From TrEMBL:
<keyword id="KW-0809">Transit peptide</keyword>
<feature type="binding site">
    <location>
        <position position="306"/>
    </location>
    <ligand>
        <name>Mg(2+)</name>
    </ligand>
</feature>
<dbReference type="InterPro" id="IPR023214">
    <property type="entry name" value="HAD_sf"/>
</dbReference>
<keyword id="KW-0597">Phosphoprotein</keyword>
<comment type="similarity">
    <text>Belongs to the HAD-like hydrolase superfamily. CbbY/CbbZ/Gph/YieH family.</text>
</comment>
<dbReference type="Pfam" id="PF13344">
    <property type="entry name" value="Hydrolase_6"/>
</dbReference>
<dbReference type="GO" id="GO:0046872">
    <property type="term" value="F:metal ion binding"/>
</dbReference>
<keyword id="KW-0378">Hydrolase</keyword>
<dbReference type="GO" id="GO:0008967">
    <property type="term" value="F:phosphoglycolate phosphatase activity"/>
</dbReference>
<dbReference type="Pfam" id="PF13242">
    <property type="entry name" value="Hydrolase_like"/>
</dbReference>
<keyword id="KW-0479">Metal-binding</keyword>
<comment type="function">
    <text>Photorespiratory enzyme that dephosphorylates the 2-phosphoglycolate produced by the RuBisCO oxygenation reaction.</text>
</comment>
<keyword id="KW-0007">Acetylation</keyword>
<feature type="active site" description="Proton donor">
    <location>
        <position position="87"/>
    </location>
</feature>
<keyword id="KW-0150">Chloroplast</keyword>
<keyword id="KW-0601">Photorespiration</keyword>
<dbReference type="InterPro" id="IPR006357">
    <property type="entry name" value="HAD-SF_hydro_IIA"/>
</dbReference>
Length: 362
């Protein structure tokens, strides 16, 4: 009896999480008739949807409970690439987590490819590169994939017309990446100080050349941006709605959890009654992109992260091995709660356990 009710809860919880990456009304703007999409872009989009639906069904299947990592060498030898989430895995705020440099050095010495993926869109790859450098880590810009970078990568993948503009609700990282990729944009931080002064008959103008609205984490979110983005999505034919992530909370300080990118996306979902395409975790877009770029098989990847509903789900949606570290937001109690449907393959305290578990195994 108990088992049966638990399994129903597991499926519905999982479906709710997976549905975040699926635009439920995608046919309205991702249709062959959308003037912004070429035929090949439409076909790519259909493939994305089919793959997401397969992931949804696969996730509903029963997953064995996560095992504590005991033999690090076995896991290391079984994959060729490690994808690391950053906050809670590599660093916490501005502090490096203990043992990280030595662990990354050991993995590189063993010939493993290292990739760093973050849902935080406030910085560009270059800006993240500086953060790694400041923390004393030797990480190449090419190894860093932030959701800010995923935005132009996605636009390129669907052949988004370069003569169209992107309206940005978000911070500097998205603007920098769009600029690097040669896309025109409006909005961003400069709309942070704009106010709407209502008077009878007032009408807000908007740019009819905006073909995509991108929403990421934005500390300067306001009603002007909501209304502008809403007008573009509702009134510009075929306008896309893209989210960098739908994270409920983020860690601006270590004193409490703060409203995350999902809160900004939620405002636009409310006003447009549309679901966005999510390019960050747990959507499979970045995983597909990485696998193609480096020519790696997803079964040869281990995704390492501190969040179940983004990192671990991202790895599982991509068909990778998964390792949860308890150095960030997830506790053992959360992992083992009967309400938690997302079970990684393994869990351990922090990534430097690779070194001690390795030493213990010798
Ligand atoms: Mg994290």
């Amino acid at each position: 009896m108990l088992r049966s009710s638990t399994s129903v809860a597991v499926v519905s919880h999982t479906q709710r999480l997976c549905s975040h990456s699926l635009p439920t009304n995608y046919t309205s703007f991702f249709s062959p008739r959308n003037p912004l999409l070429s035929n090949s872009a439409f076909l790519k989009w259909k493939t994305n949807i089919a793959s997401s639906n397969n992931n949804r069904f696969r996730m509903a299947a029963t997953k064995a409970l996560a095992q504590p990592l005991q033999n690090a060498d076995e896991l290391i030898d079984s994959v060729e690439t490690f994808i690391f989430d950053c906050d809670g895995v590599i660093w916490k705020g501005d502090s490096l987590i203990e043992g990280v440099p030595e662990t990354l050095d050991m993995l590189r010495a063993k010939g493993k490819r290292l990739v760093f993926v973050t849902n935080n869109s406030t910085k560009s790859r270059k800006q993240y590169g500086k953060k790694f450098e400041t923390l004393g880590l030797n990480v190449n810009e090419e190894e860093i994939f932030a959701s800010s970078f995923a935005v132009p990568a996605y636009l390129k993948s669907i052949d988004f017309p370069k003569d169209k503009k992107v309206y940005v609700i978000g911070e500097d990282g998205i603007l920098k990446e769009l600029e690097l990729a040669g896309y025109k944009y409006v909005g961003g931080p400069e709309d942070g100080g704009k106010k709407i002064e209502l008077k009878p008959g007032f009408l807000m103008e908007h740019d009819e050349d905006v073909g995509a609205v991108v929403v990421g984490f934005d500390r300067y979110f306001n009603y002007y941006k909501i209304q502008y983005g809403t007008l573009c999505i509702r009134e510009n034919p075929g306008c896309l709605f893209i989210a960098t992530n739908r994270d409920a909370v983020t860690h601006l300080t270590d004193a409490q959890e703060w409203a995350g990118g999902g809160s900004m996306v939620g405002a636009l979902v409310g006003s447009t009654q549309r679901e966005p395409l999510v390019v960050g975790k747990p959507s499979t877009f970045m995983m597909d992109y990485l696998a193609n770029k480096f020519g790696i098989s997803k079964s040869q990847i281990c995704m390492v992260g501190d969040r179940l509903d983004t990192d671990i789900l991202f790895g599982q949606n991509g068909g990778c091995k998964t390792l949860l570290v308890l150095s960030g937001v997830t506790t053992t109690a959360m992992l083992q709660s009967p309400n938690n449907a997302i079970q990684p393959d393994f869990y351990t305290n922090k990534i430097s356990d690779f070194l001690s578990l390795k030493a213990a195994a010798v």
